[in-house]
Each structure stands twice: as C-alpha cells, then as structure tokens.
Write a structure and sequence with these properties.
alpha+beta; elongated
Length: 1288
C-alpha cells in the first residue's frame, strides 16, 4: 500500500480557516457541557467545516496561565487577592500623604515591590516553562492530505490543524488531535496506540478502521464526500459515539445535500472508541495511519481531563492566617490607643506650651492623623516578607525531598506537586491505602488453578497436559481451562528485536494469564481482524524452553498454529466485573468464553452444577486465605441461530447514538447466562519490599492505617497479616451485614465488646432525626430507644450466629490474656454502604477504638466517602495513597494525597500532592521530611514575628516620650531593609536546614513523630510565648538605653568630642541592642549549625554593619545619620550596655531552658543529649546512665521509664522499643536504672563502675557506626541506614 503515500511537499501549509477559528475562540470558551450538539463534520470541505456557526476551535494547546499581555494584570490580581498585600498597600497609600506619614514613601514602596516582584518572577518562570512545553507540542510537524487532491501530502504544524482535516501519521509519532482512523498500512486495517501520556498504561490498544473506508486509498479518501456526526465533547477517555456516512458518487453534490442524505441514511456506519485515536497517544507497530480530526484543541479528551486539583491549605497556614488576624486586631488597638493619647497630648500639653506647634484642626483631627501614622509605624509588627520567606522555604524543602536518594527507585526520585503541604506531612493521623499496586508489586504470577474441584499448581497442569494423570476426562477439562485462558482476554502481542514475544495487556492479571497459557503450550501469537492465532504445542516443550531461556516467552514458532475467529468481545468494566469473547473454533463451533469475579460469575452459571460450584467456592476461599487474586472462567456453546439473532441485534444497538451503552449491556447480560464452569485461577501479587516494616513503623508512630481494597475479605485479611497491619495478638472483628438495621446492631455489639455491655451507643444524628420525625407522625408514641429495641428484637436473631462481633476471635494464635488486646476491624463494601448512609456516627465510634481497619470489596466512590467521613468527623489530618485511577477520588478527598507511579497507570500520581516510587518511601516522607518541615516552618513563623516585634515595639515606647507625634526612632531605610536584606537570610537558612534530632534516632524511635503529630508546635500559646519574649526584649532595649543615656546626659554628660547626644544616637543604640538580641536568640533555639546557617547568620550581621556604615558616610542622602553610628561607638557606656543588655535579654531564656531540660525534659531532648554524649564519650561521667525512649500509652504525654546504658545500646542495635524516665532533683539530675523486665539493675559500686565503663566503650562503637552513615549534604543529615531501603 506504499502507493498511498504520494509525494510530499516540503512546504508549510497554514490552514485557511485559522482566522475564523481564532475569532470564534475569542467569543466562546470550549468547555465540557458548553455544547448541546456537536456540528456535523464534512469530508474534504474546508468551507463547510469553517463556518462561523460551527465554532470549531483551533488545535492549539495551552497549559500556561498567562500571555505576554495578560501577565502583569493577572499577577497583580493574584497578589492583591491576598489580605497581606492589601494591608501593605494601605501602608503605602498612608506613606504617600506627608501630613500623616511618619516615614518616607520609598520605605513602604520598596517593601511592597519586593513581595510583588518576587512573586512575579516565580510565576513568570514557571509560566515560561509551561509556554516552552506548549510551544514544543504546538510546533510539531505533521502531514496533511489536501482535500480534492490525488493524495498529495503537505507539511503543516499541529497548531494549524482543524476539525475535518485528513492527517497522515507515521509510526511512533504522537497523535496531534482526536481523530477517527480511516485506513492504515496494516492488511487487516488495524493500528496500535500507546496511551501512556493519557492514563499511564504502556500496553498497546487496538484501533480499527471503519469498513466503509478501510480499503480506500489516499486518493479516494481525499476525494470522497460524507459526514461524521459526533457526540458533544466530554472527558471520558474510552467513551465515544458517532456515526459516519460516506457517498463515493457525491463529488458534485453540495454540503447541504450530503447533510440531508446523512440524516436519512439508515446504513450509516457506527463509530465507537475502537475507531478513535486520542490526542497525545502514540502510533505503534503500524507504518502509518490516516485519520480525520473530529475534536481539536480545548475540545480533545486530553484537554477536558486537565482539570485543576482541589485547593488544599495546610493547618499551619490556616493557623497563621488566624493569628495574623489577631495580631492585626492588636495592632489596631495600639493604633487607637496612640491616637487617643496624641489627641490628649495635643489638648493638654501642646496647647499650653508655646514651643510646640498645634494642629489647626484641634485634638480630634490630630488624633485621626496619628491613628494612620501609627498604623504605618506599627505595621512592621507583621513582617512584610513572612509570606515570601515561607513560600521560598517550602520550595527548598520540596526540592530536597526530590533530591533525597533514599526516595529513589531505578534512578528516579519522587515528585512534589503541592509544596505548601510539606508541614502537613508532620501532622498525619490516618493513612488510607489501596492494596493492589500500592502495598503489592502489581507483578502478577500464576500460582494455582481449580478445575473440576481439583487444585493444580504449575507442575500439576504440566503433568496432566503431558498425559501423566489423565483420569475421568481430567486432561480434557484442564485443556479447556487453558484454552479459555489463552482466548478470553484483550491483550495484544509485540516482539523485541531479539524476537522475544511480549504480551501487552490492560491489566497485569491478563498478562500473567497469557504467560501461563504460553507455558502450558497454548501460546497467544497475534490478534488480527480475522481473529486470534494460537500456537499449540506440547507443554513439556514449553517447560523445557522456559528453563533454558531467561525470558518468560519466546516466539512460539514450534507447534501448530490455529486461528480462532473472534466474532465479538464484551470488554471488562468496573460495573460488569467480567469480560467475554465469542469465538468460532476451527471446527465451526461458536463458543462464548467468560471470566470475572466469583460474585458475578456464579450467579450466571446454569443449574445442575451445585456440587462443582461448592467445591470451586471452597477452593476460592483457600486461594484467598493465601492472599491470591482469583478469577472464575466459564463457557457456553451458542447455536448458530442464536448467534445470528444476537449479532443482528448487537450491530443495531452498536449503531445507536443515544442509549448505545445501555442497549449493548442489555444484550450482553442476556447472552452471558446459563454458563458452564470451566475453572478458577489464582494469581499471586507479591508485597513490595519493606511494606511490613513500614506499616509497623507507622503504627508505632501513632498513625492509624486503613487498607481499602476491592479484593475478597479473606485475601484482604491475609494481606493484613503479611503486611503487619494485623497480628496474632489482635482481636479481629468482622462486620458483614445484609441490611441497614443489622449493620447498626453489629456495630453496637462491637462497640459494647470494648466499652462494656451497659454502654449505650447513641444514634447517628442523621438517622435520629428521621426516626423522631417518623415517630411523631404516629399514634402510640414510644421513645426512640424503645423503638430501636423493638425493631431489633423483631429481627431474625439467627442472623447473629453468622457474624457476632461480641465474640471476637483471635486471628492467628493466642496472645497473653493478661494484656489488653488491640482491636482490628474488617468490614466489607456491602456493610460499608449501609454504615456510610445510615450509621456514620456508629461506624466512626467503633473504628476509632480499632488499632487497624481493613475495608474489602469497596468501590472507588466508597473509598472517597470513607476518607471524607473520617476527615470531617475526627477533624484529623488524613493521607490517602494509591496507584490507580480508581484511587484518584480518595487521593483528592484526603488532606494529603500521595500517588505511586504504578503499572496501572500514572493517574493517581498526576492527581496527587506527592508522588512516590514505592510504598516504603512513605515512612521517610512522613516521619523525616514531614516532621522536619513542620518544625522548621513553625520556627520560621515564630522567629519572623518575634524579631520584628522585638525591634519595632520600641517605636511604641518612644511614642510616650515624643508626645505621640509619630516621630520614628529608627531611620526609614533601616526599617525598609530590615526584612528585605538584614534579617532575611537566617529564617530561610534555619527553615531549610534545622533539625531537632538526627535521623538515625528517629528511625529507631517512631514515637518521636508524636511531637509534631499533636499539632502543638505552632499554637496560640507558643506564639504568645515568643511575642512576650519580644515584648520583654523591646522594654529592656528601649528603657535600658533611655536610663543609661538620657539620665547621664541630663546631668551634663557629653561625648569625648564635646557634642551631646540626641534621639538619633539613642535610636542607633536601641537598634544595636535589638539586633544583638535577635541574633543571639538563634543560638538558644537552633540545634543544627551547618555552614549554611552560619553563613546566613554571620552574613546578616555583616549586612547590618555595612548598611549602617553606608548610611553614616553618605551625608547627601542621609544627613541626619551622618557619623552618628561612629560617634556612638566612641562612648564606653555603649559597649558596657551592649554586654549587659544581652545578658538581661537572654537570661530568662537560659533559665527556662535549664529548668525545662533538667527537670521537665521531653523525650527528644533526652535522646538529643544522649546522642551528644555518645559522640563525646569523654564528657560522660563515670557511672553515668544513658537513657532511651518508648511510648507509655497510658499517659497523656510522653511516657518516661528507666533504662541502663547497657540496655539502651543493646536495644538500639536490635531495634526494639526502649523506655525512658528522667527524674529531677533539686541539685542533680538522676536517671534511675531499671531493666526491661522491670527488675532493678542496682549493683555494688565496683560492679556498676565496671559495667558502665564496658558499656561506654561498646556503646561508643555502636553509635559511631550510625554517625558515620550521616550524610552531610542533606539538611538535617541524609543517612544511609542498613535497616531501611536506600539508594546505593
């Protein structure tokens, strides 16, 4: 068919209708639902397709937010939507009014411009990258077949394509728009596409040419007349309904006549998703394909699927906004008080003092002016750069997450998509996890099967097919089962360059089954329009080949090739939960082969198979208990008359535009009945590496883990045990109900089994309102409790014997009854439906008592509802993690969505806030990065607010001495650059690199996560403590300076130069003391001093000195500050007061920290000290005791218990839980010694000393190994830990 490829003109052709399209784009946005009907598309008629009324968009794809002209306006709009920007804009306006502004306008304008410019640069750079990616897509070159030509192809660009164009696509080329394939290079008129860019699936999907155009050449297609009627554009990737009418003799007819014929043509060809080439998919294994554009640009399915994810805000940001409002109110109160004081001063003092000017407007006007003046002055209490600093820190934190080599897999790291949720990772209380592909590898391997009630493994199947165990038709039954595996699927084949056969399937299950059939001698070779070709050979030969070959499959050339004509395929959907194919065997027999879930397939079996059904059901239960995935195969022989009738009805239903799915499904449901059971398959899906260790660690960290899966209950329970979500010491409560009332009764009994039989479980609010309303409308009223009791007694009590949560069983083994057992809940989707709808409060009350929860047979919608229920009812931070498209709703519903790049596609990863490579990385993401991010961001906010308040509250105290006139104590430019340059670096550096305790300690003590999980790091109390410290520092800095300088100079004191001091000198001294206080405060709160933090702090001190020096030497711009700073330094009392003030300011912090650490230490502080002692063994006193941590679940705060140093290091090496207690005394700090068994370890002094010395030497070597693994490149130390996965 090479003749179809005529000569190509290497000239770029612009589409003549592009101008009309752009005009239409300007008038209407092409969104889903904006069209009621889609215009008719005409073959080879650019004029008809380009009509203004059609409003077809151009094929330009835009993901950018801004254009060159809209950028400044949109950026300003985005910034001025924020309350902080509006607040500082008001400050700028006030500063522009000389009569009321105490500061020069440039000081406020520079600060506001700094925020806007930084935001604009960040937005501009990100949008530039989007424009670059868009331009790459829109500038791709394609071959356009000109209408009315002899198949001549011209080169055009993707953005110039329009609806109705004929596009020639080559192999491995990306599809430029949604197109209906008309013909291909394949003899069977098929083509293969890869949709990895759309849904992440790398398997090849078959697309077919319509029969009416399949055999046409390019010349014929370029000359035909016809129409295509499509449904309105929508986002569903695999749903497409259209009809095509072609008139080969209609070259002379006009478009109206063709359109009229199309409406009356009853022989129109139906089109569906099998005829549609999706934009951004790739053409594979096909030399070329010709298609007609039906959806372009914003109306393609890819564009309609590009929706913005829900907006999420972290709790730290929410609290920050709330606290900023509080500070704003306090600021307004201070401004009001200053205004009143200014009015009183104007009335009482200024009016009677001849040397003071008075305001002509009187005290009231003076007070009003001063209100705005102090509004501008005290605005510095809310840092101008806080929002920008917090955003920059979160971006750096996100980059370090992506660079973390311990989160790499196959040289690819994780992806952070929502960096503003970094600190939210430190607050996680619930984790909701999918199973398949999330906890498991999604790498399926055939393990067992059940045929005629007999279970076979791989060797058993080989033996039977080889004739080693044929009895009672055993071989024939197994052969039918393997044949069903080889035929009942939608997989396609491909070959590597080496000739190795590769199976491409829509699910790993099908791929595993095809490989298993191949090993058993029934090799699936190819799929064409004629049917499915199998290579049938001896299973012994295949077995020997597999042993001698490293590959799972080979080219299958040996054996007999047999063609099975495929008449119809009824594809798998989540609603159908089964798939079927109808084939014609080489003997002419028509067979239906079906496979699906047992719950769906068993009800479709013909009567008379009860015994076989019972045996197979027992085998399925056995498979599930071993954690295997199961499928049921069945078949049916269809008489030719029945097939002819079905085929006719099926074709008619397939040609419908409206109601096509319903009509087709009704026919499929009708023919998929009275089936004969063939067998059952069992496929193993192995757990990912380190999943049990990860879940066990998260549970010890105080995080509740829920596994939500669509698998059978036994399979889910087995996975729960293998993943350590469940263990033998737990009581497993299974909740399985068939009605709403039974659901509540079981939940009530489960709650009472924990809280006692006398505990009364209140009704759900929703159900209680309905019951009370119904009760009030009846006569003979009863209370709600009586009604419920009566209704429960009326139920069939025999049902309680099936599942009785009050008699909870211990799942595996018996635990020690002397200790309370943890409770685990297993609930199925049917019961969950009733609980979510009618009894949500009871469900929440019971699950909060459970240590672990497993939900099985759950639909994607139920997953999202479960997450929403827990998130809203418990006000808890919920994290959802999954890997497939069915997990997207759950991921978006949670506070934090984590996706895994899996084999089911990348839909979950694209919709998530954080995308990981495997489940075990979740441990490090939450407990290391999340914990550190919360601590760092909280400190950044605390310190940013503190430093501004500590320095600028002095303005308020100065107002008492200047008659509340609005006079500034500091120079305007110092106030401007204070947040922008002088103190900008330290909060950023600490926000990126601060750690409280090293990673190797956190790895061994998951309970340390509770420090951030309780959300007590950034609270109103903590902020108040920092602000009170700032208040104290400002009082010391101002009034101390005032007492030393003002009183001494009032008594005649002068400088050595003979000049006296003024308020400019005092302002410089107060600023110097304030700067010394805020920088030295860092030394009391920063734990990890790496070189970046040191450069930031010392560099900021240098910037302050340089700024002040420049102000003092440039008299032209700063005449009031000329040499003031240098004169100040010549006064000896300046140096004396600087040292004294620092001691006074920092003394409360020093005392508080000593008392806290010595008498009321937190666990992390004790472990921090222990780690320091291990690094400095010489500093440890002889006989000193080391300590370690473990949780005390009976205590409200951290539990503390005693441990000897010997036990600490032995437990640290083995990774067991440790207990800690520190008992404080008046003069010394004592750690009492107690062994893990509770017996005293007190010995004689000599023995204690010897034990301590030997323990010290051994422990030093133990901890030195951990320290040697500490990475010095990552903020807070990236470490290679042999106890956890890492990238070597």
């Amino acid at each position: 068919m090479e003749s179809m490829g005529s000569a190509v003109k290497h000239t770029i052709k612009r589409n003549p209708v592009i101008a009309k399209v752009k005009a239409a784009d300007a008038k209407r946005k092409h969104k889903e639902g904006s069209r009621k009907e889609y215009p008719i598309i005409h073959f080879n008629d650019e004029e008809a397709n380009g009509r203004k009324a059609n409003n077809f968009p151009s094929n330009t794809f835009t993901t950018a937010k801004y254009s060159l002209w809209s950028f400044p306006f949109k950026v300003l709009w985005e910034q001025f939507r924020k309350a902080t920007t509006i607040y500082f804009t008001i400050i700028v306006v006030i500063s522009l009014i000389p009569q009321i502004s105490p500061i020069t306008p440039w000081t406020s304008i520079m600060g506001l411009l700094f925020i806007i410019v930084v935001a604009a640069v960040r937005e501009g750079w990100e949008d530039f990258l989007r424009h670059k990616a868009d331009r790459k897509v829109n500038q791709r070159r394609y071959h356009l077949v000109e209408a009315g030509s002899v198949g001549e192809r011209v080169v055009t660009r993707s953005r110039w394509l329009a609806v109705g164009n004929l596009v020639y696509v080559k192999c491995d080329q990306q599809i430029p728009a949604d197109m209906v394939v008309l013909t291909t290079s394949d003899p069977d008129h098929l083509c293969y596409i890869e949709t990895s860019q759309l849904d992440g699936e790398t398997n090849l999907k078959i697309r077919r040419s319509p029969a009416v155009t399949a055999d046409m050449s390019l010349e014929e297609i370029a000359s035909i007349k016809g129409t295509i009627q499509c449904e309105a554009p929508h986002h569903q990737l695999y749903v497409f309904k259209a009809s095509m009418s072609v008139s080969e003799d209609a070259k002379e007819e006009n478009a109206e006549e063709v359109e009229h014929d199309a409406e009356q043509d009853t022989n129109a060809t139906a089109l569906d998703q099998a005829n549609l080439l999706l934009q951004s998919s790739f053409l594979r294994n096909t030399e070329w394909a010709l298609g007609i554009v039906v959806y372009a640009g914003p109306e393609t399915k890819l564009s309609l699927n590009q929706k913005k994810p829900p907006s999420k805000m972290s709790r730290l940001d929410t609290r920050l906004n709330y606290y900023v409002y509080i500070l704003f109110i306090i600021n307004m109160i201070l401004c009001l008080a200053s205004a009143v004081a200014a009015g009183i001063f104007e009335w009482k003092v200024a009016g009677s003092s001849w040397y003071l000017p008075t305001d002509t407007g009187g005290p009231w006007l003076m007070g009003l002016k001063m209100f705005f003046s102090y509004f501008a002055l005290l605005s510095y209490l809310i840092p101008l750069s806080l929002v920008v600093s917090l955003e920059m820190v979160k971006v750096f934190q996100a980059r370090y997450m992506e660079w973390d080599e311990q989160l790499f897999k196959d040289d690819t790291g994780m992806t952070v998509k929502t960096s503003n949720l970094n600190d939210e990772l430190g607050l996680v209380q619930y984790i909701f996890s999918d199973k398949t592909g999330t906890l498991t590898e999604n790498q399926m391997d055939f393990k067992q099967c059940s045929v005629n009630g007999v279970i076979y493994d791989e060797d058993g199947v080989h033996n039977v097919l080889s004739g080693m165990g044929d009895k009672d038709g055993e071989a024939e039954a197994v052969r039918n089962y393997v044949l069903a595996m080889a035929l009942a699927h939608s997989a396609v084949t491909d070959k590597k360059k080496s000739g190795e056969l590769i199976y491409k399937a829509s699910s790993p299950d099908e791929e595993a089954l095809c490989k298993a059939a191949h090993q058993f001698g029934y090799s699936f070779i190819s799929r064409t329009s004629g049917g499915v070709t199998l290579n049938i050979s001896s299973p012994g030969d295949q077995k020997r080949k597999s042993k001698n070959s490293d590959s799972d499959t080979d080219d299958g050339e040996e054996g007999e090739e047999v063609l099975y004509e495929q008449l119809c395929m009824m594809e798998f959907t989540s609603d159908r939960r089964r798939m079927s194919v109808i084939v014609r065997t080489p003997d002419g027999e028509i067979k239906l082969l079906s496979k699906g879930a047992d719950s769906v397939m068993f009800e479709r079996l013909a009567s008379g198979q009860d015994e076989l059904k019972a045996k197979s059901s027992a085998d399925l239960d056995s498979f599930s208990q071993n954690g295997l995935r199961t499928l049921v195969y069945a078949e049916k022989t269809i008489p030719k008359e029945e097939w002819a009738s079905f085929d006719k009805e099926y074709q008619a239903a397939s040609n419908l535009i409206e109601g096509r799915e319903e009509a087709v499904e009704e026919l499929c449901d009708k023919i998929e009945r009275d089936l004969t059971l063939v067998g059952c398959s069992a496929i193993e899906d192995k757990l990912q590496p380190y999943v049990p260790e990860t879940i066990d660690y998260l549970l010890k960290a105080g995080i509740k883990v829920w596994v939500i899966t669509g698998d059978k209950q036994d399979t889910a329970i087995n996975i729960g045990f293998s993943s350590k979500l469940l263990n033998s010491s737990m009581k497993i409560c299974k909740i399985n109900a068939t009605s709403s009332k039974k659901t509540r009764r079981l939940l009530v009994k489960a709650i009472q089994s924990v809280k006692g039989a006398d505990y009364e479980v209140p009704y759900s609010k929703k159900k209680k309102k309905k019951a009370e309303k119904k009760a009030s409308s009846r006569s003979g009223y009863k209370t709600l409790g009586e009604k419920a009791s009566d209704s429960e007694e009326g139920e069939d009590d025999a049902d309680d014997d099936d599942v009785d949560p009050s008699q909870v069983e211990t799942a595996k083994g018996e635990a020690d009854d002397s200790q309370p057992k943890k409770l685990a809940c297993v609930i199925d989707g049917g019961t969950l439906k009733y609980a979510l709808k009618d009894w949500p409060d009871e469900l929440v009350e019971f699950t909060t008592l459970c240590h672990s929860v497993v939900c099985c047979r759950v639909t994607p919608l139920q997953k999202a509802k479960v997450v929403r229920l827990v998130r809203q009812s418990q006000k808890a931070v919920c994290l959802s993690i999954g890997d497939g498209a069915n997990d997207v709703s759950m991921i978006q519903e949670a506070n934090i969505g984590v996706g895994i790049y899996g084999k089911e596609g990348n839909q979950a990863a694209r919709a998530s806030d954080f995308a990981l490579r495997q489940f075990s990385h979740l441990r490090r993401l939450i407990c290391i990065h999340g914990r550190y991010s919360m601590l760092r961001n909280a400190f950044l906010i605390h310190y940013s607010l503190y430093k501004n308040a500590a320095v600028f509250l002095a303005q308020l105290w100065f107002a008492c001495f200047c008659g509340f006139s609005g006079q500034t104590l500091y120079d305007d430019w110092i106030m401007t650059f204070f947040n922008i340059t002088i103190t900008a670096a330290p909060p950023l550096a600490v926000g990126v690199y601060e750690i409280d305790i090293y990673e190797h300690i956190i790895d061994k003590h998951p309970e340390l996560y509770a420090r951030t999980q309780k959300n007590e790091i950034f609270t109103l109390k903590s902020l108040s403590i920092w602000m009170l410290s700032a208040l104290y520092q400002s009082l010391v800095a101002f009034f101390g300076t005032y007492i030393i300088y003002a009183f001494s100079f009032a008594k005649g004191g002068i400088w050595l130069s003979g000049q006296d001091a003024g308020f400019y000198v005092m302002g410089n001294v107060v600023l110097l003391v304030g700067m010394a206080g805020i920088f030295l405060k860092l030394f009391f709160h920063v734990t990890h001093w790496n070189w970046v933090v040191q450069v930031a702090v010392y560099g900021s001190v240098l910037i302050y000195i340089v700024t002040v020096v420049l102000e003092n030497v440039i008299s032209y711009f700063f005449p009031n500050q000329y040499f003031v700073f240098f004169y100040m330094l010549t006064i000896p009392s300046t140096w004396l007061w600087l040292v004294l003030s620092v001691v006074i300011i920092l003394l409360p912090d020093l005392v508080a920290k000593f008392v806290k650490r010595a008498y009321y230490p937190e666990d992390w502080q004790v472990l921090q000290e222990l780690d320091w002692l291990d690094k400095h063994p010489r500093k440890r006193k002889k006989g000193a005791d080391a300590i370690s941590l473990a949780p005390d679940h009976d205590a409200k705060s951290y539990g503390v218990r005693e441990r000897s140093i010997n036990n600490l290091h032995s437990d640290s090496r083995t990774g067991s839980n440790l207990d800690l207690v520190a008992s404080g005394h008046k003069t010394t700090r004592d750690y009492r010694i107690k062994s893990s068994t509770g017996h005293s370890n007190s010995n004689k002094k000599g023995k204690s000393k010897q034990g301590a010395d030997s323990s010290s030497s051994s422990s030093s070597s133990s901890y030195s190994d951990d320290r040697s693994n500490t990475d010095k490149s990552y903020p807070g130390s990236l470490r290679v830990d042999d106890s956890f996965p890492m990238r070597k």
